[in-house]
Amino acid sequence: MQLLDGKATAEAIREELREAVESRKSAGKKIPHLAAILVGSDGGSLTYVNAKVKACDHIGFDSSLIKYEYYVTEEELLNKVHELNNDDNIDGFIVQLPLPDHIDELKVTKAIDPKKDVDGFHPTNLGNMVLSLPGFLPATPAGIMELLKRNNIETSGKDCVIIGRSNIVGTPLSIMLSRNSNPGNCTVTLTHSRTKNLKEIAAKSDIIIAAIGIPGFVTADMVKEGAVIVDVGTTRVSDQSKKSGWALKGDVLFDEVAPKCSYITPVPGGVGPMTIASLMINTLRAMELNGK
Ligand code: GUN
């Protein structure tokens, strides 16, 4: 079994981005600027947004973190989105999800200028992805594709099961892995809560992508010998042995599944750092595409 080391792969990408920033600086060109909007104080969202800002610092991007109280109105949030759309200094921005129930997430996502939508969640970018047209790819699926590519994982002709059909991960990844590309050319089965024979499908698959948000969902009996496993799960579970009182748990029961696999991503240190690396790639591209 080999670890698919997202942390190391993301570090290699960060190094490339650092060099790109340096050469832009020496040419007197603009430095990419990413803004992130965070609403409320959900611990998980705060951790992710802080990690995104930290990644900007490491690479040399400018960043702005805009925080709102949980009870911010939809109108106030939409006004900020419009302001960022029109701010020439901001190359790309994200609104960290989930948003509180009183705010329409789709309305906010649709208000983001697709040219600055570095999360790739806007319907225009998702539509472009389906048609293989240029645009921004959603960060987590794009990060998984990059992880497979940079670690020379063969996907062509393989049977791939994706567990979980979210708009952010499962659904876009099912399209990306099935199209004629490298990585890609998989025969993809997108499974979900109504799938009847999920265990049997998984046990026959060459590649398993677990993106369901249930810690330890994928057990050894669901895994074929030599399978490639990508664990997208990052659920916070109570762990009193940690200073923080919690630990991140993946969707895969790592200890019993790992010995059966050819490759497996750890949690943490697998998909998470790759998501952030993709966001950084998208931000640099946003700036270049906007002619800066
Ligand atoms: N919530 C969980 N993942 C993501 C992500 O990639 N982007 C944003 N904006 N919110 C998220």
Write up this protein.
It is a single chain. The protein is of the alpha/beta class and 292 residues long. It has two domains: 30-115, Rossmann fold (3-Layer(aba) Sandwich); 139-272, NAD(P)-binding Rossmann-like Domain (Rossmann fold, 3-Layer(aba) Sandwich), CATH 3.40.50.720. It has ten helices and eleven strands. The strands form three sheets. Strands 1-11-8-7-5-6 form a six-stranded parallel sheet. A three-stranded parallel sheet has the order 3-2-4, with helices on one face. The protein has a two-stranded antiparallel ribbon with strand order 9-10. Strand 2, helix 2 and strand 3 (62-68) form a beta-alpha-beta unit. Residues 94-97, 119, 139-140, 168, 275 line the site of guanine.
Give the topology string: H per helix, E per strand: EHEHEHEHHHEHEHEEEEHEH
Number of strands: 11
C-alpha-based Rg, rounded: 19 Å
Distance between the termini: 44 Å
Q: In the CATH hierarchy, what is the superfamily of the largest domain?
A: NAD(P)-binding Rossmann-like Domain
Name given to the CATH architecture of the largest domain = 3-Layer(aba) Sandwich
CATH topology of the largest domain: Rossmann fold
The assembly state of the depicted protein chains is: single chain
- Quick one: CATH class of the largest domain? Alpha Beta
> What amount of the residues lies in strands?
15-25%
Number of domains: 2
Provide the helix percentage. Answer: 25-40%
Number of separate helices:
10
The backbone outline, from C-alpha atoms, is: globular
**Main β-sheet, spatial strand arrangement:** 1-11-8-7-5-6
- Which spans of ≥5 residues are poorly predicted at pLDDT below 50? none
Each distinct ligand: guanine
Overall pLDDT: 97
How does the helix and strand content classify structurally? alpha/beta
Major sheet size, sense and barrel closure:
6 strands, parallel
